[in-house]
């Protein structure tokens, strides 16, 4: 866990890390001390009464139930957002006003309730999506429980009890573990019944190979990988048979610690950079709306009161509640206009489209906001095994003996997978295998228990990865020339191995053990004699070898010079982080000369006792060796280079050993081939021993870093410190041990093939191909999506500024309301939606991965962009309100005749003081036509400014829609002119504009919808007026773009001059 007592901060809430209780260090004590501490004898186990007593003290062997927040709390949390609160308030007020108008005697029409109902629908959909995502976040803890063992074989009171529920285990229980068993608790190994026991614990520790276990105590401060005398809950026995004693159960186990860390990490999840910016925007918007609403009321407060003058003094003051509510409705309309209601839907659509694009590149995004967060990733913390490497052992070098004992031959072997056809052996003899190479192929094939099968398009191994790699090598070596292959299966991927096993059948196996570090098999040799074939650690085989085989099969004594030559080659391969295995054989086995595998044969007794194996495997003839490794993926080197060009730092955090990890990092380009990396390569333990300021200084280094032998707590601490420094962190992982860090990172990336369900559920993104280069491609896609999102956010916000200016001007000038809330909702949600979504299809910049990542605190809208859109917004307001005024006051505009419908013209003064209409003498209004309707005002001429404004409202709304369509073309690029970036570069935008105009025509020309929105059809000349008024928005923005480019160019030149002056 690292240094205890530290705290995570989330907002103002302080979340303390779980404090570990004192745990007895069983790994650092010998067996007798452990038995004494737990008051149990390994041969007898606990008595039933002791089991019950300990269960009362320690509880059951299970992980804590995580109490998910109740659904009502999750729903309420979805409204903890400034924009949502403004919308909610606007909807409630709008609903109350609609209800009040009905109560006041007016007919309650469905149109009055359209606005609040639509807003409520938006809020409900938003809450549903939010609750669904919150529920998904809880699944990681449930997945963790699924990897726990369900049963165990326990020794209690001297009796072996199979299938005891793992939940019933208590500290001190004696448990029997065999091949295939899943470990049910953390245990101390008491006895190795078989000669060796190996456990697959990579998902918990990050190690790339199964680990051999021992009964010997280790250092008290050993890391989890170094606790070789312990087995851990959730891991699996892949070889051997042993007796263990339970030391920790439930939340005290290593997997329990991971459970606690996931809980802490889930509490520390933060909003994405875009969400933070939108929240900040919402807060600013709240202030702006408040100020503008107050201004609207102050400007129009004179309309709330009326009075009479008598003898020069005002009297008979009257308060008009009707006027008060009217301007209150304008304030509500202002709020509706200011809030980009369609923004959440468009963002969701754009992110969903991004998920589809990323899925095509094998990056499966589980959480929508992660698409945007990827775009500002500054650090990628990557696991090594399976992500940077293939997680498939492969032979990289084959060393054989030459024609004389003072020379060795070295062959480079290509290939990174278990596919026998992946790669070749370089400098292979043109005339086929000589006797020495044949012997190596024979031993590698027969002294081997692994298998490889083809599953769809992949080759999957069974057994030890190193042995599977040897079988792939044999297939690449081929079959000796002139050999009969008629009986071989055409479908068997290991045809050469099959031939060798049929050519010299195995009759006995000398299992691998940790003392002699070798494995041997006795075969029926082609010569009619019995032969012993051995593979194992090169140093151990050399100690037991007295001869060596030359190229032509001649056997010569293994003299000191030859031995040193082989050891020199071994050291060279080990320095390159290759795992080396040697091959040897023995043809003289007098005691096994007649042995046929029968248990009745006298020699069979020798094979039952592993202590005899070293004497059997003596006087060997050494034939060669191989160097194996988990090879890096071929495309990773270029991906690392792409990260460097994009300003993204790569940190490798692995549970593997330091030497191997450093060699891989040099090969893939994290480190240079000859670079001094002493300050950039640390073990997890070394990093955790540093003080916090030194830790942060270490993490701030400008290039790649490596952390080897890292434990779960180390990974979590690294991610936390990086986030504290303002970095946006992407963390990869596949094991249970990676889940807490995946949860804590800004982007948790799990492996789809090798990843555990725990890691996948804790992640934000899953790699379908487990490939690091896929992450880099996803980051590029994320950057492109963010740029497109900025385009449509700017577009929608500029449109909303125009609507606010329009409402404000209406109130400030005192003219009748030109745009009603339901129309503004239609524009924000439906009309603006298609163009905004289409902007998400803008093609990415060609140099998108050659720019440094944006900082998470970079402004969404710069001061210059805001000024531009204030200018545009001012024009939108003037155009919409101006069109409204033109219809009332002008018979023609710019040569366009507007008198065809027969409406009555009024003066601007009359329009601005329409509230005093009832006091005007001889005011008359003639009827006019709109669509198929005739509007008359004989009974109430003053209704001309309310019921009669339907045509003027329609013109204002149409101008607003047209301007926003043209404005979407401006949003194609932040600074580039439409002459250089024409609209057809994004054909979807042109389609979207036609769709939006089509939808607008639908509500104009479908009578029911026209009634709902309070509009009427327009004539050709009126449409001409709309287009003439709307088009200048393109010209205005082109001028502003030109000014911006010119100012940027001047600023760049000044910077160049300053830097040149400084250098001189």
UniProtKB/TrEMBL annotation:
Keywords: ATP-binding, Calcium, Calcium transport, Ion transport, Magnesium, Membrane, Metal-binding, Nucleotide-binding, Translocase, Transmembrane, Transmembrane helix, Transport. One of its GO terms (cellular component) is membrane. Coiled coil: none annotated. SUPFAM superfamilies: Calcium ATPase, transduction domain A (SSF81653), Calcium ATPase, transmembrane domain M (SSF81665), HAD-like (SSF56784), Metal cation-transporting ATPase, ATP-binding domain N (SSF81660). It is found in: Membrane. Its main location: membrane. This is P-type Ca(2+) transporter. It comes from Rubroshorea leprosula.
């Amino acid at each position: 866990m690292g240094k205890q007592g530290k705290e995570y901060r989330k907002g103002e809430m302080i979340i303390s890390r779980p404090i570990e209780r004192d745990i007895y260090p069983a790994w650092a004590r010998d067996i007798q001390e452990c038995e004494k501490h737990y008051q149990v004898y390994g041969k007898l186990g606990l008595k039933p009464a002791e089991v019950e007593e300990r269960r009362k003290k320690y509880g059951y062997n299970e992980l804590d139930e995580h109490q998910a927040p109740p659904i009502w709390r999750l729903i309420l949390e979805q409204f903890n957002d400034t924009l949502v609160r403004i919308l909610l308030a606007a909807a409630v007020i709008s609903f109350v006003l609609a209800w009040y108008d009905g109560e006041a005697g007016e007919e309650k029409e469905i149109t009055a309730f359209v606005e609040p109902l639509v807003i409520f629908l938006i809020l409900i959909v938003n809450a549903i999506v939010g609750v669904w995502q919150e529920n998904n976040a809880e699944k990681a803890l449930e997945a963790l429980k699924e990897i726990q063992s369900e049963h165990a074989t326990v020794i209690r009171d001297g009796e072996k009890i199979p299938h005891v529920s793992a939940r019933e285990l208590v500290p001190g229980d004696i448990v029997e573990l065999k091949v295939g068993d899943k470990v049910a608790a953390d245990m101390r190994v008491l006895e190795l019944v078989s000669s060796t026991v190996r456990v697959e614990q990579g998902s918990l520790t990050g190690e790339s190979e199964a680990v051999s276990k021992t009964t010997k105590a280790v250092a008290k401060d050993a890391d989890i990988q170094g606790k070789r005398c312990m087995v851990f809950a959730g891991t699996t026995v892949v070889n051997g048979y042993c007796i263990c004693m339970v030391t920790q159960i439930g939340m005290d186990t290593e997997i329990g610690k991971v459970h606690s860390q996931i809980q802490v990490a889930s509490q520390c999840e933060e909003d994405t950079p875009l969400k933070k910016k939108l929240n900040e925007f919402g807060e600013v918007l709240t202030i702006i709306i408040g100020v503008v609403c107050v201004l609207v009321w102050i400007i129009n407060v004179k309309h709330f009161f009326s009075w009479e003058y008598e003898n020069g003094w005002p009297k008979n003051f009257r308060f008009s509640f009707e006027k008060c509510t009217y301007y209150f409705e304008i304030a509500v309309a202002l709020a509706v206009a200011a809030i980009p209601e369609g923004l959440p839907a468009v963002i969701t659509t754009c992110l969903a489209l991004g998920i589809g694009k990323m899925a095509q590149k094998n990056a499966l995004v589980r959480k929508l906001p992660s698409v945007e967060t990827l775009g500002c990733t500054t650090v990628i913390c990557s696991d090594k095994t399976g992500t940077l490497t293939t997680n498939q052992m492969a032979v990289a070098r084959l060393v054989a003996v030459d024609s004389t004992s003072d020379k060795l031959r070295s062959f480079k072997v290509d290939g990174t997978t278990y596919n026998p056809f992946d790669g070749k052996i370089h400098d292979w003899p043109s005339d086929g295998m000589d006797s020495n190479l044949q012997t190596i192929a024979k031993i590698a094939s027969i002294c081997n228990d692994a298998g490889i099968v083809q599953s769809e398009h992949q080759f999957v191994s069974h057994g030890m990865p190193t042995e599977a790699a040897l079988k792939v090598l044999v297939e690449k070596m081929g079959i000796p020339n002139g050999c009969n292959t008629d009986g071989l299966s055409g479908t068997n991927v290991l045809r050469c191995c099959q031939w060798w096993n049929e050519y010299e059948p195995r009759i006995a196996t000398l299992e691998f053990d940790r003392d002699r570090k070798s494995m041997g098999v006795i075969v029926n040799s082609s010569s009619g004699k019995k032969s012993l074939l051995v593979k194992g650690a090169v140093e151990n085989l050399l100690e037991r070898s007295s001869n060596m085989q030359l190229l032509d099969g001649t056997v010569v004594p293994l003299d000191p010079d030859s031995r040193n030559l082989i050891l020199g080659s071994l050291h060279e391969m080990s320095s390159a982080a290759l795992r080396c295995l040697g091959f040897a054989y023995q043809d003289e086995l007098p005691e096994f000369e007649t042995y046929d595998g029968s248990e009745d044969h006298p020699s069979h007794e020798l094979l039952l006792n592993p202590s005899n194996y070293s004497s059997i495997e003596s006087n060997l003839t050494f034939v060669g060796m191989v160097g194996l490794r988990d090879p890096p993926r071929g495309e990773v080197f270029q991906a690392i280079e792409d990260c460097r060009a994009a300003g993204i730092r790569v940190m490798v955090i692995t549970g593997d050993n330091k030497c191997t990890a450093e060699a891989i990092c040099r090969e893939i380009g994290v480190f240079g081939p000859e670079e001094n990396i002493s300050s950039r390569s640390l073990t997890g333990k070394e990093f955790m021993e540093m003080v916090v300021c030194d830790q942060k200084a270490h993490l701030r280094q400008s290039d790649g870093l490596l952390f080897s032998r890292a434990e779960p707590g180390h990974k979590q601490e690294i991610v936390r410190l990086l986030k504290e420094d303002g970095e946006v962190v992407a963390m990869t992982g596949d094991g249970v041990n990676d889940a807490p860090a995946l949860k804590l990172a800004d982007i948790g990336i799990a492996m789809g093939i090798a990843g555990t369900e725990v890691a996948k559920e804790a992640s934000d993104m899953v790699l379908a191909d487990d490939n690091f280069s896929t992450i880099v491609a996803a980051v590029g896609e994320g950057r492109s999506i963010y740029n497109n999102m900025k385009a449509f956010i700017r577009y929608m916000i500029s449109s909303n500024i125009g609507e606010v200016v329009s409402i404000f001007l209406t109130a400030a000038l005192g003219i009748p309301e030109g745009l009603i809330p339901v129309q503004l909702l239609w524009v924000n949600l439906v009309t603006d939606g298609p163009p905004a979504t289409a902007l998400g299809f803008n093609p990415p910049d060609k140099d998108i991965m050659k720019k440094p990542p944006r900082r998470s605190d970079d402004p969404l809208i710069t001061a210059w962009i805001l000024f531009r859109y204030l200018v545009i917004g001012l024009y939108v307001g003037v155009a919409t309100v101006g069109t409204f005024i033109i219809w009332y006051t002008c018979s023609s505009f710019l040569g366009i005749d507007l008198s065809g419908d027969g409406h009555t013209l009024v003066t601007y003064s009359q329009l601005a003081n329409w509230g005093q209409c009832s006091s005007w003498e001889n005011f008359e209004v003639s009827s006019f036509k709109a669509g198929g309707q005739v509007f008359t005002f004989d009974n109430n001429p003053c209704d001309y400014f309310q019921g009669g404004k339907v045509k003027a409202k329609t013109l204002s709304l149409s101008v607003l829609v047209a301007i926003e369509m043209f404005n979407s073309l401006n949003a194609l690029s932040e600074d580039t002119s439409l002459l250089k970036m024409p609209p057809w570069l994004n054909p979807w935008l042109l389609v979207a504009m036609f769709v939006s105009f089509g939808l607008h025509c639908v509500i104009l020309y479908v009578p029911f919808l026209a009634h709902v929105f309070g509009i009427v059809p327009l004539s050709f000349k009126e449409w001409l007026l709309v287009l003439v008024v709307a088009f200048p928005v393109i010209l205005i923005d082109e001028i502003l773009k030109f000014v911006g480019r010119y100012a940027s160019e001047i600023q760049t030149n000044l910077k160049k001059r300053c830097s040149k002056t400084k250098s001189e």
